[in-house]
Design brief:
Elements lengths: L2 E4 L13 H9 L3 E5 L10 H7 L2 E3 L2 H5 L4 E3 L6 H4 L7 E4 L7 H8 L4 E4 L14 H21 L6 E3 L2 E3 L3 E5 L3 H12 L3 E5 L6 H6 L3 E2 L5 H4 L13 H15 L4 E4 L14 H6 L5 E4 L16 E4 L2 E4 L9 H16 L2
Parallel strand pairs: 1-2, 1-4, 2-3, 4-5, 5-6, 9-10, 9-12, 10-11, 12-13, 13-15
Antiparallel strand pairs: 7-8, 14-15
């Protein structure tokens, strides 16, 4: 019988790698499941929910993982916890393979087999295991909701006897999974939405959501996508032309949401201080790349920075702010990866 252990996550992480739903399915497949007591509370999954699914409840993290053949996590576990796992254990989670290489190597030397779910290939057969997409979808949604809450004005156009309230203008920079959801959410809330990306393939997707596509559409732009579907690093000349176009466009935007990330590299800078200072007082920037240095020059990870009337939100772990959905989707991704 395969044993699956689920420890609690570190403080500040509300998600969990196993839901009661996926626990029940794994147990049905013949696995033994052990969950650390209280590990699911951040996602409103009680110990009783796991017990009802057939899982055992452990008093400590070490007890939850000590006999496990597979350990399911959200974040990279501590080295201390990893040393309490038996040799050959499969450690599966978002292990952040591009940061703190020394800690990752030390983790590998414990004898565990590491599976970083962020490296899942973007192919059809792996879609159900794509943790980045499931979490980015929620991040894009939450970015718009957070921006709307901070904006202090209405997003949709409203016609009243006292006059007309104009629709807010939302600009989404980077049209991956998060960007597409941000566009869709902003449109649902009634905003006028524009978007930009260096990949020509997304132009049609942007239009299908009722938004306008903004980009320098030259020959380099038409070749700017890898075979895996990721954006390529653009030339300095293209970046300059795109920056000039964006600089003119952001002056009239109320909310800008940046989502641009390149795997294994610092986030590209898309908004200079001069661009930020050209925006209207009361404007909002939500930087979804804050954890990797940010797309905006003034972004500070984990903070909301106010600069000359513009607020730049560098909130971290937006999927974790909707933990019930985030954990449920993430747990299904892991289930698809481990189930026979």
């Amino acid at each position: 019988m395969i044993s699956i252990g689920v420890p609690a996550e570190s403080p500040g992480e509300s998600r969990i790698g196993l839901s009661p739903e996926t626990a029940k399915k794994l147990i049905k497949h013949g696995a033994k499941v052990v969950v650390r007591s209280g590990a699911g509370l951040g996602s409103h999954f009680a110990d009783e929910d796991y017990s009802a699914a057939g899982a055992s409840i452990a008093a400590t993290d070490a007890e939850a993982v000590k006999d496990a053949d597979i350990v399911l996590t959200v974040r990279r576990p501590s080295l201390a916890l990893a040393t309490s796992m038996k040799p050959g254990v499969m450690l599966i989670g978002m292990l952040d393979p591009f940061s703190d290489a020394g800690d990752l190597q030390a983790l590998g030397k414990t004898g565990a087999s590491l599976f970083a779910m962020e490296l899942m290939p973007r192919i059809s057969r792996a879609q159900s295991m794509d943790v980045l997409s499931s979490q980015a979808n929620l991040a894009g949604y939450k970015a718009v909701v957070d921006a709307a809450a901070l904006f202090e004005r209405a997003l949709p156009m409203m016609m009243t006897a006292a006059g007309t309230v104009p629709a807010a203008r939302v600009f989404v920079m980077g049209v991956g999974v998060a960007g597409l959801q941000a566009i869709a959410t902003a449109r649902r809330l009634g905003a006028i939405v524009t978007a930009t990306d260096v990949r020509p393939a997304v132009k049609e997707q942007v239009a299908s959501l009722g938004a306008k596509f903004i980009a320098v559409e030259d020959e380099e732009f038409r070749q700017a996508e890898t075979a895996a579907g990721y954006a390529k690093e653009m030339s300095d000349d293209y970046k300059k032309k795109q920056a000039e176009l964006v600089a003119e466009h952001v002056k009239n935007q109320d909310i800008v949401i940046t989502t641009a990330l390149i795997p294994g590299r610092p986030a590209p800078k898309l908004l200079s201080q001069a661009m930020i200072e050209s925006m209207k007082p009361g404007s909002i920037i939500v930087d979804l790349a804050a954890e990797r240095g940010g797309n905006a020059e003034l972004t500070k990870a984990g903070e909301v920075v106010a600069h000359k009337g513009v607020r730049i939100m560098g909130n971290l772990n937006l999927p974790g702010a909707v933990p019930v959905n985030a954990s449920s989707l993430y747990a299904r991704n892991l289930l698809a990866f481990v189930e026979p």
